[in-house]
């Protein structure tokens, strides 16, 4: 609830009194007070909730400028400027403010939240074929049923429009509802857009600042400089993964040769360049979401997020704010879950109105063999284009044995910068370990290369599953077992030697998929009562379009820069799901974002290509907090049978249960007299109509916890579903009723699930309720935390 003007004055007066006392104390105890009052302005975002469609943009901007004028001193009038203005799906602005000014604005009526404009982090020839093969359904259906009316918005680092992945050959007219634009820039023309790439916007750090006009009649917009062209490669890669046109004989310098295509090759692409190599300003990402909604996209793909260590509440998170309003307008938002795994509580972008994606491997990897001096061949993993052959051999040394003078053994063992004696490493292959996570593989490679080494063998159990691209420098990564064998060989001879061979494709690799070690894990740090991540998709060694590399070290000798790249991360998994969502949307245009999410969640695959349960990188069975509901199966999701529709009303109740005041929630969504349910508590979040269930606290002595769900029949008119429960040991799970009968399509039915954990061991345990009518299986997974 926001204070009235009189109350606000009283609060501000009290605050001023407290501030004066603090200043007096500082005067008495400090030699100088010159730095105390000198608060430097910093970028802030002021979020002011929902806005009715067709709102007056000019009037909004004028009112926001007036607010700034009220808090910024008159002698600093030049700072009265909006860095960004939000006026399509929600209202607000970003501006340069001191901490005191930001605090003052937060007390204004109509202001939902004020938060610092932080920098967010940037989080295929085989992956789509693998998903189709795992579904067991012929892929020809994908092309038969897809339309080209779906528009995917990509918020990322821009686009390389010349890539063949963005050809519009065979595509029809651009949908008439499209309201976006193709912004020209210093190296980007309107003709770079086409019927495939239908829009492109760009934003700079000071994009289009809006200031009061000198004549007082209109605001003045100052144009930013730049273009939508991608200079990083990340945005081009994610865009082509989601909706790239099929490109024959694509490869990365001969590796992974095949047909490169996106998940929804018939969909259109709209690009919103909000990021650079250094990251993405949260105010810019929020502006891009606002523009994308107004432009007319159907799905938004965001491979960006906060660090898991600095998560804020849902109404101070720019992606959560934008995604909420996108859902209101029927636009689905798909986000990467982050790369801070494998520790628990690291998943980000975990709001219930966001489809949160984990990353997995596929059945192809890249192996770089190591031939030891005794003839033994060791299999390592890398994307390496060295010109070495098995007829060559080089001395083999362990990092700690070639350490520079006074260098700790642990640093040299980890290829720490400056840790080697170049006289001892020149012309040799170095063996290092990966026990210091602060030294990345790229740094280790550069350290070895700078020391004159002929190659690097890295022993690292976790990262071996994500092949590193070392360019032309000989590199191979092995796990602990193989590493121990190499070290044993080195200790068995006075002159150990080896050679590292160039990388080769390893196809039909098993087991796959496996949860990537870097993929962020649940439970969600903001609330454990929503099961996150939602689903898993390919995110390891994904081949897709990119910018031609200008880095000489990345281009093999005698080769031209590749127009494709191999990248890993939840950034790569996210557009797989966005493409799958667009594919489903093309077949079911009436489905809401939550219905599409439900279809993907309840039909996800939980077994690998060995027919066994999915595993994490450690080899243990994966839990729902590792992989969400499992690996997406887009073709199965076309016909899920039943769906869990999560409405705006559900999301508003979620905000009530989470602890937001009713007046704040009413500001978020306009045109409603919404009221919170009586006695809202966080325990009630589990009752939100989500396609999975999470009970954050179930105490043995507590009364049985009951959770309700409602499903909508999107299958045959006359069907009856029966529930089967897979409950973990120690927990009694009951479903009532156990049968759901439907007499028509779109009919709804509800059921209740009770959990009794009196005999369970402490901690999270997992199970599922699966509904089946003989033709469809609808899995409702659950996580229960027994206390």
From TrEMBL:
Domain Subtilisin-like protease fibronectin type-III per the UniProt entry, residue ranges: 687-784
Any one Gene Ontology molecular-function term assigned to this protein's record: serine-type endopeptidase activity
Protein's recorded name: Peptidase inhibitor I9
PROSITE patterns named among the record's database cross-references: SUBTILASE, SUBTILASE_SER
Matching Pfam families: fn3_6 (PF17766), Inhibitor_I9 (PF05922), PA (PF02225), Peptidase_S8 (PF00082)
Signal sequence coordinates: 1-35
Keyword Hydrolase: yes
Ranges where the Peptidase S8/S53 domain occurs: 148-616
Transmembrane segments: none
Family: Belongs to the peptidase S8 family.
Hydrolase as UniProt keyword: yes
């Amino acid at each position: 609830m926001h204070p009235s003007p009189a109350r606000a004055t009283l609060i501000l007066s009290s605050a001023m009194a407290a501030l004066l006392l603090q200043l007096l104390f500082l005067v008495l105890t400090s030699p100088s007070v010159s730095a105390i009052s000198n608060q430097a302005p910093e970028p802030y975002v002021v979020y002011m909730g929902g806005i009715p469609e067709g709102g007056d943009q000019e009037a909004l901007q004028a009112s926001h400028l007036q607010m700034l004028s009220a808090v910024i001193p008159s002698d600093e009038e030049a700072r009265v400027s909006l860095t960004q203005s939000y006026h399509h799906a929600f209202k607000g602005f970003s501006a340069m403010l001191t901490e005191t000014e930001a605090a003052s604005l937060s007390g204004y009526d109509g202001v939902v939240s004020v938060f610092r404009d932080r920098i967010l982090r940037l989080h295929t020839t085989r992956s789509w074929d693998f998903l189709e093969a795992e579904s067991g359904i012929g892929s020809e259906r994908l092309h038969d049923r897809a339309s080209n009316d779906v528009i995917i918005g990509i918020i990322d680092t821009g686009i390389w429009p010349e890539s063949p992945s963005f050809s519009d050959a065979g595509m029809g007219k651009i949908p008439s509802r499209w309201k976006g634009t193709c912004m020209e820039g210093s190296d980007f023309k309107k003709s770079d857009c086409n019927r495939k790439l239908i829009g492109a916007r760009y934003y700079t750090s000071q994009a289009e600042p809006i200031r009061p006009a000198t004549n007082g009649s209109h605001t003045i917009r100052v144009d930013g400089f730049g273009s939508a062209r991608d200079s990083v490669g990340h945005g081009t890669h994610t865009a082509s993964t989601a909706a790239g046109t099929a490109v024959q004989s694509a490869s990365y310098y001969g590796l992974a040769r095949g047909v490169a295509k996106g998940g929804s090759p018939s969909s259109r692409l709209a690009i919103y360049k909000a990021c650079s190599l250094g990251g993405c300003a949260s105010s810019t990402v929020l502006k891009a979401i606002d523009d994308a909604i107004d432009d007319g996209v159907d799905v938004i793909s965001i491979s960006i997020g906060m660090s898991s260590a600095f998560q804020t509440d849902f109404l101070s998170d720019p992606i959560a704010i934008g995604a909420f309003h996108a859902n209101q307008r029927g636009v689905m938002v798909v986000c990467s879950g982050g790369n801070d795994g494998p520790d628990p509580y690291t998943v980000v972008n975990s709001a219930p109105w966001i489809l949160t994606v984990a990353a997995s491997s596929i059945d192809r990897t890249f192996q770089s063999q190591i031939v030891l001096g005794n003839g033994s061949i060791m299999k390592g993993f890398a994307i390496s284009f060295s010109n070495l052959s098995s007829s060559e051999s080089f001395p083999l040394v362990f990092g700690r044995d070639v350490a520079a003078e006074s260098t700790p053994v642990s640093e040299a063992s980890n290829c720490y910068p400056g840790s080697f004696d170049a006289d001892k490493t020149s012309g040799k292959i170095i063996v290092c370990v990966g026990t210091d996570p602060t030294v990345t593989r790229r740094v280790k490679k550069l350290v070895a290369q700078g020391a004159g080494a002929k190659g690097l063998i890295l022993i690292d159990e976790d990262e071996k599953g994500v092949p590193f691209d070392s360019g032309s420098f000989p590199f191979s990564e092995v796990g602990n077992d193989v590493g121990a064998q190499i070290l044993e060989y080195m200790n068995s001879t006075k002159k150990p030697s080896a050679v590292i061979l160039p990388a080769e494709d390893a196809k039909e690799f098993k087991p796959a998929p496996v949860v990537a070690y870097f993929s962020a894990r649940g439970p969600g740090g903001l609330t454990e009562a929503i099961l996150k991540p939602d689903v898993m998709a390919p995110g390891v060694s994904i081949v897709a379009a990119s910018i031609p590399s200008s880095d000489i070290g990345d281009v093999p000798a005698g080769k031209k820069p590749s127009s494709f790249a191999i990248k890993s991360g939840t950034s790569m998994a996210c557009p797989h799901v966005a493409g799958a969502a667009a594919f489903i949307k093309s077949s079911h245009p009436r489905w809401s974002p939550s219905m599409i999410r439900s279809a993907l969640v309840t039909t996800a695959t939980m077994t690998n290509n060995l027919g066994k349960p999915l595993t994490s990188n450690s080899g243990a069975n994966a839990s729902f907090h590792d992989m969400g509901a499992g690996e997406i199966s887009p073709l199965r999701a076309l016909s899920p049978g039943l769906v869990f529709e999560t409405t705006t009303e559900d999301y508003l109740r979620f905000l009530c249960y989470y602890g937001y005041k009713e007046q704040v929630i009413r500001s978020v969504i306009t045109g409603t007299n919404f009221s919170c349910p009586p006695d809202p508590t966080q325990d009630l979040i589990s009752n939100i109509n989500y396609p999975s269930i999470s009970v954050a606290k179930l105490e043995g002595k507590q009364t049985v916890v009951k959770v309700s769900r409602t499903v909508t029949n999107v299958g045959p008119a006359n069907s009856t579903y029966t529930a089967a429960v897979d409950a973990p040991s120690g927990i009694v799970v009951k479903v009532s009723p156990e049968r759901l009968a439907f007499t028509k399509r779109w009919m709804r039915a509800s059921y209740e699930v009770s959990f009794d954990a009196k005999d369970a061991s402490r901690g999270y345990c997992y199970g599922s309720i699966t509904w089946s009518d003989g033709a469809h299986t609808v899995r409702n997974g659950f996580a229960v935390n027994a206390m």
